[in-house]
Design goal:
Elements lengths: L3 H10 L3 E6 L4 E4 L1 H7 L3 H4 L13 H13 L12 E4 L5 E12 L5 E9 L1 H48 L3 H29 L2 H5 L2 H16 L2 E6 L8 H21 L4 E9 L2 E8 L13 H9 L3 E6 L5 E8 L13
Parallel strand pairs: 6-7
Antiparallel strand pairs: 1-2, 1-5, 3-4, 4-5, 7-8, 8-10, 9-10
Helix pairs in contact: 5-6, 5-10, 8-9, 9-10
Length: about 350
């Protein structure tokens, strides 16, 4: 039979944070994982209100729920679809799942056993899934527009030109028509290749990151007259496949944003390595913008995070934009329980 010491050992060893809270919302006990999760010391947490672990905007609502629960306590398992947050000592919110179970300790009144699981990793992956689904849908729309507005129109025009060629009797005009058809076919082929490179550039698999980026930059000059001055350390081609694709997409998005929004005709891309990390800096001297949560950089952050890297952005109106992406040279699995920086 298990002793009280055995049950205490189980409580202490739980991989999730656990709190014992009395009917007044006072924290009476906790395990080491709770201290690690919330950042409080034992003296600070013991005897304090559980409400201090709730974000300020939700405390009033939480207190009402806590009092309502105390009147009719019942087990409530994790994973019931509620999006909950807890608060660290430094003010950082943590996405969590919480299960509640009423109980009575041998040496005290009724209490609630709270099991708290940090779901930062799950939340990140769920958000990344939404980002990827949105990106895929946007890509479908883009392909649909490009196929209809460019390639379908070109094919219709070619059909008409071929019919006119068949009816043309003058050799000189037939040669001119053939040359025009050949030119249009060549342009359409280039357009299809451009679309293929946009989906997944063949150079990325065949020749590595440097070649794929330089090919993309040459195309920007041809299509938009936009110049990218690039300095790429050859070590960039030593990245693994996942990190290579992530960095390529990050740079592609950053440069595309500069083309569309910076109101300049050039940008610089510099890639170098330091301390086992590859750093890519994309900079323009354009109009800049107000950096807030709505700048549309979510996919860059998520692409970097999923390969163990990160993104920093420096910008302000009138002062250009610098985006710096870092990815580890060796594969690092992002932690699933750490809070996001």
């Amino acid at each position: 039979m298990l002793t009280d010491r055995d049950y205490r050992a189980v409580f202490e060893a739980s991989p999730d944070a656990m709190l014992i809270v009395d009917s007044e919302g006072v924290i009476r006990d906790f395990n080491p994982q709770a201290l690690a999760m919330f950042g409080w010391s034992r003296d600070e947490l013991e005897g304090s209100s559980v409400d201090r672990l709730v974000p300020a905007a939700r405390r009033g609502h939480h207190e009402q729920h806590r009092r309502h629960y105390a009147r009719a306590p019942r087990p409530r398992p994790m994973g019931q679809g509620l999006e909950l947050s807890a608060l660290r000592k430094d003010g950082t919110p943590i996405p969590v799942e919480i299960s509640l179970s009423p109980g009575r300790l041998a040496a005290g009144p009724e209490c609630v056993i709270c099991t708290i699981r940090d779901v930062t990793g799950w939340t990140r992956m769920r958000r990344l899934s939404r980002v990827m689904l949105t990106a895929a849908e946007n890509e479908r729309k883009h392909l649909s527009r490009e196929l209809h507005d460019e390639f379908l129109q070109d094919l219709v025009a070619l059909k008409i030109r071929v019919k006119l060629l068949a009816d043309e009797t003058e050799e000189n005009k037939r040669e001119q028509a053939r040359a025009l058809i050949a030119s249009q076919i060549h342009g359409t082929i280039r357009g299809v290749k451009r679309m293929i490179r946009g989906l997944l550039p063949p150079e990325l698999d065949r020749h590595g990151l440097s070649s794929a980026l330089n090919s993309a930059f040459r195309e920007l000059i041809e299509v938009y007259g936009f110049t990218v001055r690039a300095a790429i350390d050859p070590v960039a081609d030593a990245l693994d496949a996942d990190a290579t694709l992530a960095l390529y997409r990050i740079i592609q998005e950053a440069v595309t944003n500069a083309v569309r929004h910076a109101q300049v005709e050039e940008a610089t891309v510099t890639i170098w390595s330091a301390g086992g990390t590859l750093i890519a800096e994309i900079r323009d001297e354009g109009c800049g913008f107000v950096l807030d949560d709505q700048v549309g950089l979510t996919s860059m952050h998520e692409r970097a995070a999923i390969v163990g890297g990160g993104i920093t952005v420096e910008t302000s109106p009138g002062n250009g934009t610098t985006i710096r992406a870092t990815v580890p040279m060796t594969r690092v699995e992002p932690a699933t329980t750490e809070r996001e920086s």
